[in-house]
Write a structure and sequence with these properties.
- The chain is mainly alpha-helical.
- It contains six helices and two strands; from the N terminus they run ααααββαα.
- It has one domain.
- It has a two-stranded antiparallel sheet with strand order 1-2.
- The longest helix has 48 residues.
- It is elongated.
């Protein structure tokens, strides 16, 4: 008899986990899409600035500040999805050799690396949170008052969201790698939480 036929509790729990994973993946994809649209809009603004500067000697105001802030925002909007998709640059020479000889140890080593990555983003999150609060309360901004200004707090908020998402993804990697190394959740390993 299947789990669903015997009350469905394990099947329902697995379905709930899958929905949470899919919701998280969709959220990361949405952030990535916002970052992509932002890149396109920034490209148009930079081109308009260059055209205005050369053709009419009239550059758009505040473009350097906007670009400076946008780079940080775009990176932290897209880092979670990039990490989840496995497109973060890695050197796997040593890991591949260890994996061939001691596959379980290699998985535990990767779980350790994932925990270190999560710790880095947690530290960054808690280090930047007071900066966000200060920028929000004080109305800190980039630019020249009376000319054009951009508030800092949205960028710090994006940074906090990116850090939280990246830490959560690293924790998911660590959980998946540890489960596979200890032989638990063979089906979950096949589905691979990292995807």
């Amino acid at each position: 008899m299947s789990d669903a036929a015997e009350g469905g509790r394990p099947a329902a729990a697995a379905g709930g986990k899958a929905r949470r994973r899919n919701a998280f993946a969709g959220f990361l994809l949405g952030l990535n899409a916002i970052g992509t649209v932002w890149i396109f809009a920034l490209m148009l603004i930079i081109n308009a600035d260059v055209f205005g500067r050369t053709a009419f000697s009239a550059p758009l105001p505040g473009v350097p500040e906007l670009v400076r802030l946008s780079i940080v925002g775009i990176v932290f909007l897209q880092i979670g999805h990039t990490l989840r998709s496995g497109r973060i640059t890695r050197v796997e020479g040593l890991s591949a050799l260890i994996e061939q000889r001691w596959p379980r140890f290699a998985l535990l080593m990767q779980a350790g690396y994932s925990l270190l990555g999560a710790a880095l983003f947690v530290i960054l999150f808690f280090s930047c949170r007071p900066i966000f609060v200060r920028a929000w309360r004080n109305g800190d901004y980039a630019g020249v008052e009376g000319y054009i200004t951009y508030p800092y707090w949205p960028i710090y908020l994006i940074l906090l969201i990116g850090c939280a998402c990246s830490a959560a993804q690293f924790f998911a990697f660590a959980w998946n790698e540890t489960s596979r190394a200890l032989g638990r959740g063979a089906q979950a390993a096949e589905r691979n939480l990292a995807r």
